[in-house]
Amino acid sequence: MELGPHSRPAEPGRCVSGSPSAGSAFPASRVPAAGAEPGSRPAAVAAVLPAGGCGERMGVRTPKQFCRVLERPLISYTLQAWRVCWIKDIVVAVTGENMEAMRNIIQRYGHKRISLAEAGATRHRSIFNGLKALAEDQPDCKLTKPEVVIIHDAVRPFVEEDILLRVVMAAKEHGAAGAVRPLVSTVISPAADGCLDHALDRAKHRASEMPQAFLFDVIYEAYQQCSDYDLEFGTECLQLALKYCHTKAKLVEGPPELWKVTYKQDLYAAESLIKEKISQEICVVVNTKDEESVGHLLKEVLKNELNCAAITPTALDHSGGDVQNFLIDQCYSFICVTVLSSDFQAPRKFLTALEESSLPLLYPVVVVLVHCLDFTFVLPTQKMESLRWIRDLAKELKKRNVLLSGLLINYSQDEQKLQESLQQGASIIAALVKERRPALAGQLLVA
Amino acid sequence: MELGPHSRPAEPGRCVSGSPSAGSAFPASRVPAAGAEPGSRPAAVAAVLPAGGCGERMGVRTPKQFCRVLERPLISYTLQAWRVCWIKDIVVAVTGENMEAMRNIIQRYGHKRISLAEAGATRHRSIFNGLKALAEDQPDCKLTKPEVVIIHDAVRPFVEEDILLRVVMAAKEHGAAGAVRPLVSTVISPAADGCLDHALDRAKHRASEMPQAFLFDVIYEAYQQCSDYDLEFGTECLQLALKYCHTKAKLVEGPPELWKVTYKQDLYAAESLIKEKISQEICVVVNTKDEESVGHLLKEVLKNELNCAAITPTALDHSGGDVQNFLIDQCYSFICVTVLSSDFQAPRKFLTALEESSLPLLYPVVVVLVHCLDFTFVLPTQKMESLRWIRDLAKELKKRNVLLSGLLINYSQDEQKLQESLQQGASIIAALVKERRPALAGQLLVA
Predict the structure, then answer these.
(1) For residues A89 and A141, what is the distance between their CA atoms, to the nearest angstrom?
(2) Which residue of B has its CA nearest to A174?
(3) B191: which chain A residues are within 8 Å (Cβ-Cβ)?
(4) Which of A4, A271, B258, B352 is the most exposed place for a label (fewest CB within 10 A)?
(5) Digit-coded pLDDT (tens) for B105-141
(6) What is the dihedral of CA B283, B286, B287, B290, to 10 degrees?
């Protein structure tokens, strides 16, 4: 059992509170019943994530939890989802050969409260090793035994606090609890000859998903008692709690996003969902009155292009504090507007603030420098010549995970031409924001 | 029951033969045993696709089979996968309100041998309606009763001929057959109190997927005999064949691509898989010796960017025949190379041939006009001025589903600069080919 780095970097993203927030899917009335007053934290919760799988079903050499999505390993997304304060310790079980890679991921993306345990040959053995690390009787262990332990897969990155809280509360009451989902396909039982024996009633069965939560003593006892056959071939922790501790797990309906990344198509789906998520917040940086009015026009057309996105036109304090706050609030897209003769001082300051930010950039940050000029008087190609510095700067910024592009908009007196150009500009911005392709950084585009 | 248009356009894509091709996963030795000699066609096979669902699980208003992937309805991809010659008739069951939309899809994308039936209120009722349309006793019906009928979902677009053939052969032998997959999650049975009753042994169960195939008389008999309860709440055709005709279906292991588009993330996955598929073939159009040598350099760097892609540098006969053949062979990406002082006559001819092609363009076609010049002597922005026609032409071509972009490459004497520019150019081309974003068409990019 190994511990994570002692000097941990600051956790990226605001720490989510243990109390259900307004608008959460979690019914506030159930919290007190389960023993946690709103505002209080459920006591002593830890988590175990088995991450020792080899990902053979994915058809690639890299284990799926280490496959990269937007250049970042999948497991880092899952760990980020666990930044809720009320989870004291997170034990990740990885194989010896991936231990160093895992340590680097924790360091690079600033994950907190992570400890590493050695993975076993099977999923159950890995979980058992994680539980052992949390048990009191371990010598030299800095972890303390929790009251409740959550078990989750490293390859289910879309877990939300709401469902974590619900399984923890249910486990406190019932001893065990697990997220379930309706079956997508009918389940059938084959006979020995490879023909159908019978089909199961879809309405009477559920798919068992993760997260699951247990009173620590229940699941630890179950693992200590269970047979080698269970450890080798079993797949279901809830079943172990039932079989060895007679604890009937409460089944909690979870959201569709809980699905497990298993096949190549799941990795694609994960990438698209992550891209969608980080394209929901856009900051339009404007400093002068003129810029503000273009900013508002852009906001309107952008709203249609990126449906439901929250688009905030704002003047930023370029000391860096504002930039930092936007990043903390999960905004990773900045559109800097410059109008007519104004220079690029403000956007340059913004870029410096971004570059100097001490936060680990969890996602590629898209920055589009929008320059508005009347194409009747200045040809876009003429203007481009004076914007060549964007290309050089983009090369530098790409190393910091910032994707910088330039965009010229026809700020025409002709209302129709202006609208057309704004519309096309918004489509281009939407494409850059949604795709986050490093290959397209540094380009000067024309709307 | 309504019939599709009488004057059907030519089927897009080459017709796949009924005999298993070399390298197919279908073991040749099993074909004769099942009654079809290699090269012969299994006799009288038809298909029924229920497409009356409302897609509530997707969380969008459009039924999922009509959701657009790369601007084209999902069901059109599924129908395209059915272009195998040996399937005589395909009956699609759609609701009355979607009948006209479905007819337009058939016309627009040139699907052949499709007939429409009215969908019922449930999946089983839709399938029954489709079967009725194929039964002999229908008055005025141009369809004939098949020996074997395949049932498939409209929202499983990645079905391959191999698995179709395997379920048909198995159905001829056993009366019924269906594709199955290993379970991804453990299946559990809840008790009445919402707690776990028991977990099923994952190794002893399978997920029932599509396609399924039946001797027509077996499944038609089953549907005629089955109860209203079955039609209302049942989900499994194999179970009906078992219950009412005592026919034990043969279970056939299918590939992971058979999965059903159910949730939003599945639609994202489908889009990525389709994009990946159509990015596998790239035609690099070169006409002169100089262009040929750049073409070969580009091919090398592109191979790394788009791993496994088949990249063919070739001079095209611009009469249109070659272009047509590339499209028929599922090549939807063209890189036209122009070197130094050569004009854009050849690419222009190519674009005309593409525009005049009579084939329905099933996917957006990406065309990148690559212009090589030495940036030491000519500034990219100078050259761009003379390439403004690309922007105007791109606007026109976009309406035909052709996405045209320009790309300048630094054809420097300095080997390192040349390599850097080629490398960046390849990354840009890969991004354009992979993403196929209409918003980025018409741009002049610089590598």
Answers:
(1) 12
(2) B195
(3) 248
(4) B352
(5) 999 999 999 999 999 999 999 999 999 999 976 666 7
(6) -160
